[in-house]
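Follow-up to my post from last week.
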Amino acid sequence: MPVRAKRKQKLFVILGLVSLAAIAVGLTLYALRSNINLFFSPVQIAAGDAPLERQIRAGGMVREGTVNRDKESLEVTFIVTDYVDDVEVRYSGILPDLFREGQGVVVVGQLQQGGWLRADQVLARHDENYMPPEVAQALEEAGYSPEDYQAKAAEVGKRLDAQGDATSQN
Amino acid sequence: MQTLMIPEIGHYALIIALLMALVQGVMPLAGAATRRPLWMAYARPMATGQFLFLAIAYACLTASYLLDDFSVANVANNSNSMLPWYYKASAVWGNHEGSVLLWSLILAAWGFAVSRFSRELPRDMLARVMGVMGLVSLGFLAFVLITSNPFERLLPNVPQDGADLNPLLQDFGLIVHPPMLYMGYVGFSVVFAFAIAALLGGRLDAAWTRWARPWTNIAWAFLTVGIALGSWWAYYELGWGGWWFWDPVENASLLPWLAGTALIHSLAVTEKRGAFKSWTVLLAISTFSLSLMGTFLVRSGVLTSVHAFANDPSRGLFILVLLGITVGLSLLLFALRAPRVSHQVGFSWLSRDALLLINNILLVIMTVTVLLGTVYPLLLDALNLGKISVGPPYFNALFVPLTVILCLFMGLGPLSRWKHTPARDLFQRSWHAGLAALVIGAVAPLLYRGEWNLKVSLGVVIALWIVLPMARDLWVKSRHSAGRVAGLRRLSLAYWGMILGHLGIAVTIIGVTVVSNYAIERNVRMGVGDSVEVAGYTFTMTELANRRGPNYLADAAEIEVQRGDSRRSFTMTPEKRLYIARGMPMTQVALRPGLFRDLYVAMGEDLEDGSWAMRIQHKPFVRWLWLGALLMAAGGVLAVADRRYRRTVTARDPERAAAVEPREATA
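User reply:
Got it. Predicted complex:
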């Protein structure tokens, strides 16, 4: 192949690459824009920072004694707190194994009129040391020292574990 | 039991291995640069020694686990005396320190294998390859020794018992998934070393590709199996029945796979046509860099998941620096030396060369989109611009259409010839198959479910579009005067490898399409005596019982399952386990696998009034996902067995020999 034809082919390869890359980047940015889930803590939600009826992530600790199961269905409600403000979460389905009162959770869902959140997904920690990092940061931003809520979570967890052991022995 | 010496011997062996890696990284490279055979000769014995001493270190750690030596911090944190012995052995890599040690051991094993099986490599090439592998190994062994020493002791306060292995990891899938994945990740270091050696030596010919290809294929096959095992493990172990979550950790393994897939195709062009040379080198560098990045993401603790063991920021920083040095130096070298290896070869736009170029471009675009979706949230977080997460819709919106486009070209690939294929020939060879694929694809959902479904049709069409032209090609190529069987025998193993690999993609596509569109999930409240019907099966809870396992207590449900009106029924027994040492609950799924459907029953939560929330799923064709991956891996291995990789290099000019090799059948 003559040199000129080779150069021409190279030019086409480069042009093709550039245009394909441009299309890909455009599509990617578009897809990213509509699929980003921002994280909000209860304080931010109470302050009205979070958008209504858009997919968001929210997180905090499950407030002790607030988990309520419907008697007939799999509907469940619970309160997520950062010890400053609370958000009510409603969810239909099966909660993850490691969901427990007094522990950190992240929920993915849409904020409704009236300030409660309809969750599509509830995520709990993978092991007993897991505290979602967003939750930890939100708590720190709300003015709590990490030791405070870690200690509180551990204390609540131990108490609930002790109760659990007592009931399973009965 | 506390042992006096075993962990110390392991630690000592690790230090010796590091020193050997240092020698292996320096002497052969210096020898190749100054043409001193004696220095170059260090490569082989050092690779052997390094492998030997790492094997000793690894064996010592395993022995500490098996002997319950809780004075070793790593054992105390991740094992327990009640753990069955096979989980004790696999717990070695169920934690950060042990898994990095396994990483290093596998790296040394690959190095050892290269030093054994590449005897006919030119001396300076072998020296450079081994030198680069020695340097990589040096980096990782320094990482192990400085930040993640698995042999650290807890003295004098030795715990009575260990904290146990995370119950999610107490499973057969975990025994095999990480070693497979690491074999893949680390295996790409070989082709990386070959690429760097080619840049250093300024020589990249067909013989080079013939040496590099088998190693790449094998690593790719391991990675394929590793990813499939991970997906399979998540499917039955996490209790939701999902098989891919676009979790950053999964993406971390998908990225090198995508780049590696592009690499094995671009290597084909480099071997056959001598084209795409600098591109191949760049892909080899990228693939291994993405493997390193995967290791960084998974091991650094920037991602919170079941894989993130390390919470020590110095470790993340160390890997990041290692990654930066590797990528930076190799790209610098590439920029300086790539013009020396590059070589212009013309080709027509209707040729296998061009189709493989398109394959590479598309795979690279897929890699970049996945990379962006994975790294973007991390970057924003690192720059303090907010916490976001990128959900599966992003990945699906980009990955699925790109896969469809890729598959359209994939159907044509095996039919085309190198250099130039007349459009008429291409059309003649493919139109029957295309038409058949369209017709069958259009009616398949109607026949299967009685209702038309665009997505399912599309999935079936592209799967058939991959398979049917290949079947026709096979039919044509197997024509032989001595009959079909002789014709089939005549085809090269490389060709069979290509057929199997592409067939695997088609099988996986069918699996993904059907299970994504037709899976049924029902979450129900069930007590003893309750029944529920899902997809024509009746599930009846007959009993709730308590059980005791070696290291857990469990609530177990007996579920009787009946298909339609048939008399025969079978029992499924899901469990909700509580692992004693960690007080951690876990769902043990009951599975009834089948080639065309899985039944999946998981216990959700105790609803306190004698009933349980149960998750019952019908998953059609889900096995095809992993079956396809196994076929792909088998294809990759089969291609390596091809005669031409076993042939010793003769004195003739290998590049010309490859270029005039007439058989188009070999991919």
